[in-house]
Amino acid sequence: MNEIKVSVIVPVYNSEDYLKECLNSLQNQTLKEIEIICVDDGSSDQSCQILDEYAKLDDRFHILHQENLYAGVARNNGLSIAKGQYVVFFDSDDFFDLNLLEKAYLQISSTDSDIVLFGAQKFNTKTREIEEAPWYFNRKYLPDKIVFSRKDIPDKIMSITSSAPWTKMYNRTFILNHGLRFQALQNSNDAYFTLLSMCLAEKITYIDENPVYYRVGQTHNIQNTKSKHPTCFIDAYIKLYNSLAEKKLFPEIEKSYVDTVISGCAFNLNTITDPNARLKIYEAISSDSFLASGILDHPESYYSDQDKMYQVKGCLYAWKEHNILYQNNNDKETHILINGMQNSTPKISVIIPVYNVEQYLEECLNSIITQTFDDIEIICINDGSTDNSLNLLLDYAKRDQRIHVYSQKNGGLSYTRNIGVKAAKGKYIYFMDSDDILNAAALEHLYCKAEDQNLDVTYFDGSGFGDAETCKEQIEQYKNYYHRKGNYSQIQDGASFMEALLQNNEYRTSPCLQFMTRKHFLTNAIWFTEGILHEDNFFTFKSMLSAKRVSHLDETLFYRRIRPDSIMTVRPTFSHVYGYFYSYIKMNNYLHSLSLTEAQQIAPVEIIYRVLHNARNQFAKLEEDEKYSFLGLPIYQQTLFKLYITEIDKKSLEAKKTKIVLERTYSQKSELNKKLQKAYKEKSEINRKLQITYKEKSEINRKLQITYKEKAERGIEIKNLKSQLDILKNQSSNSATTKLRNILHSFFK
Description:
alpha/beta; seven-stranded mixed β-sheet; nine-stranded mixed β-sheet
């Protein structure tokens, strides 16, 4: 056999259905000085027998066998015995134009290049149709030269071709000198090799053809098994970054790396649908090793595809949200620090969750311990405060035995309130927020009304206050928000009360405006939903609808503090959106569990819709990347979130885009009209000037005509004069001379 020009390396794994078509297209290549190294990767079908048949008939075939270690290892093993000056890596289910190797060889050898690129087409196994696939060779990024390198297109060097090795021919010496090897990964084992080689190559050339037919539509291929090992592509990108940084190439091609990796991540996120696999991708993208390249630290304008950037950056939010929802509450140890009057049975249990409120806590506690009704227990639960709140609680507990102090790791407001209810012993329970203030006579008035009317829940009013310098607008907004103007003093069931409140737009959800029996709470299981914000929505909804006897005390007894870092004033995050969304689900499910008439459902349905509306509004205000947080939700909730929130947001976004386009069009039309009016005005002026010009021209023509007439007349006179002169020339008398003089004098006069 002559000197081997090209070594063809083909990993083979259970591809008996397509293997012969692949091998035939290699065996019949017009370039004959080749070797075909087929590496069986532990096939369990008839692939090995087919390979042996070809090896017996053609000594250019060399067969290697290995246990199932995947294509990367197979390619490396094939490369280790290759002898060709150049090498290609093909897949065993694809097939190729018969002149592919010859054309690629002539191009790479004549230009002395490290790599020659070519394109591919998709071949559908089921329909046998061929479809263009320009992304395998993005010719639009080619520089204006036949041989180039990263120095010519640093921002597109990795985008000009896909990470597939089967659209390239390599100089084997180039591979060996740089120690390039495929990764031993279950999938994506070619990304590191091909992308790094593109950055390292000093000379890259191409043939402007698509001689590879990439097979799609198979029952079994590597894409279908990615869910089992979903983060291999992340491992490839991490190793690629580390190698580029080590070789001092990263600053030069950073833009290309960012675009390629963002695109690759988005592709995998959109094609891998298994929920557990996607969670692993979120975790991998959120890892320090992946983020070390600073891939998500650039301004929006840096990214070629901002939508894909938002999607990838959204993985950080999705993983964070997943961790929040699935955090283990078992480690939230709760213990009593000071027992106080543990064995007493008070009339009222006041439950106060406390988290980092040392600035306001004393004012709150003073408003409780100085109540005119003193048969109470005050359950204060420190929810993992990092400031001096716990010490303040302990100081107050030493002075007032009615105060019971609990402490726990941070579990959130709902979890803390539920702990308080479990510890409570009073007939009535009241939830107080640790930065607010209660009127000194509040508990007495509420207790008396509840007892006199045998109420499950007693509702009352409040008022907003705060620092006018920091929250002026919010204070103005909430100053009278908690004060109801309607008359609801009669005893009625909760559903009727809800309807009356809604008619006057005075339905409020704050637990701090509700005084209820512990029996009502426990019998109807009105527990706060843990792990979410805006938990008051479902709490109040369920408490009110399940109550048999409620009434309203028309007194302002509660004072809500409006401060800059409160839930009401901070910038909305996905946690706010999710709080409304999950409350909507709980409220909707609860409503369906009740036996209400259609008329009775009108008010609850309206309230539920308002909660959903809040979720949509909050979602629309999020940054684009944070919107992807919903992907960290359980799959059932993801589906509902898409249905109720994201699809609505897309429609809203499209409407906004349409509105912007229309406004821009109207603006352009208006500007165009102005220009047209100006043009018409200029045209009118020009026409006016033209009319003047035409008039002047006519006058000039008229004068010219007169001139021409005069000239003609003079010409006749001159002719006559000449005739007379000729006559006079023949006369010599003085009289003739005198006559001539008179004629000339008359002519020039």
